[in-house]
Structures are given as C-alpha cells and as structure tokens.
C-alpha cells in the first residue's frame, strides 16, 4: 500500500484571480498503487476529485497529490458558498489546514 496525502483548495469565488480568500485542506489515504495525474479519487458521498499533480516526498516516504480546486457555484440557487463548501469538506473527512485571508 502507498501512503498518500491529498491536498485541495477551496476558493471564495469563481476564479483564483477574483478570490479574496481560500481554504487549504488535506486528506490522508492509502492506495494499492502509486497515484498519477488524471486519476479520479471517489469517496462515495462527494464528487470525484481529479489528481492534477503528484510528488514523492523522499524523507517522509509519502506521495502528495494536488487535486482540482473547488469553487462555489454562484449560478445555482442551491449551490454552496465558500463557508458551506469548507464545512461540507470537513464533514467528509478533509482536514482544514488554513484559511488564507487577504492582507
């Protein structure tokens, strides 16, 4: 089994350029194979997360995968806003590392 840390960012608007803040989250997982870019990870109650970048940390003997960023759906009346997305992620076993606020 391969130890993997999965990282994702949740932004507070439709684009990182327009965003005033974002949340960095992580999730630890074991996979029966080495992860690779393009792999979709699916935990059942969330949408699939596509891996965009993989690195191997030699000292920690762990893969670190960055998945696609997540943005609020401002066009959908039932869409989740930034705070709701962060809360939902934490309920689905994502650990909040930090919320980065504008200076």
Task: Summarize it.
This protein has one helix and six strands. With 103 residues, it is mainly β. The longest helix is centred in the last third of the chain and has 10 residues, at 82-91.
Commentary on this structure:
The protein is mainly β. The protein has one domain. Helix content is 10%, strand content 42%. The chain has 1 helix and 6 strands. The chain has one helix at residues 82-91; strands spanning 2-11, 22-31, 40-41, 49-57, 62-67, 95-100. The protein has a 6-stranded mixed beta sheet. A hairpin with a 7-residue loop joins strand 3 (40-41) and strand 4. The N and C termini lie far apart (42 Å). 17% of the residues are buried. The model has no long low-confidence stretch (mean pLDDT 90).
Give me some keywords for this one.
globular, 10% helix, 6 strands, single chain, 1 helix, 42% strand, mainly beta, six-stranded mixed sheet
Protein structure class: mainly beta
- 3D shape: globular
Helical residue percent band: under 10%
Biggest sheet record: 6 strands, mixed
Number of strand segments: 6
Counted up, domains total 1
Catalogue the unreliable spans.
Answer: none
Strand content: 35-45%
Strand order of the largest sheet: 3-4-5-1-2-6
The separation of the N and C termini measures 42 Å
How large, in whole angstroms, is the Cα Rg?
Answer: 14 Å
Series of H and E elements: EEEEEHE
* Average residue-wise pLDDT: 90
Number of helices: 1
Question: What is the topological layout?
Answer:
Elements: E1 2-11, E2 22-31, E3 40-41, E4 49-57, E5 62-67, H1 82-91, E6 95-100
Parallel strand pairs: 1-5
Antiparallel strand pairs: 1-2, 2-6, 3-4, 4-5
